[in-house]
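Table S2 (text version). Query chain:
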Amino acid sequence: MNSASSRSRTLKTVGALGMAAATAVLMTGCGQSPDSATSAATSEAAKVVPQKQTTSPSASARLTEDQQERKKVLDATKVTFDDAATTATGEVAGGKLVDLDLEGVDDDDQDQSPSPTGSGSPSASPGSEGPIWVAEVAEKDGTVHTVRINAVDGKVIEARVDADQDADDKKQTADRLAQATQTPQQAAKVATEKKKGTVTSVGLDDNDGKGVVWQVDVVGSDWKKTTFDVDAKTDTIVREETDND
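Corresponding structure-token output:
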């Protein structure tokens, strides 16, 4: 009886231990499953996020060649359009601004500026002198003067009468100015209210026989250039075009 009782107690003990072990396994399995999934997901996320951050291209790498050139010129420019316009018109008694352009910003002929002698030979490129504002200022009779202004210190580099004007050219300029009741500064304000940015060019032009417009170029923070045609009488925008290059 004692031997049987001993064996019985031993079997009960082994059975109880087995049940406890099985229960522990089940509880451990149930308890670890959600934690394991969360841990794995967190681990994978930690691997992915840094890869996206380190492989993203820089802002400058995404700029086109034209945008990089605009950025280069504008970063070096210290004299604003308004200040350059005031300086240019001050060089011609009673003169009115007809055109003002920052060299190096989308200029096809930037290396072919007329020489001070009017001979038409190319002058030094803007790169050798720094950024330059080139203005055309007209007298009342339409005689145009070219004024070149250093865009860093605001000093006048040269001021001269254009040598290649004829009577028809002068009359056309005088007629356009007579039609323009709004100033180039007002047109620039209208353009920059539509698109925030830096004015790089303003010029008086014909509006396909429908009066005259101030053509205003504005370069935004994305270094894209938008051209606005602003009616020179009503100050309304009649055309808008963005150069995405």
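Notes on Table S2: Residues 2-55 form the longest helix (54 residues). Helices lie at 2-55, 65-76, 81-90, 126-129, 167-179, 184-194.
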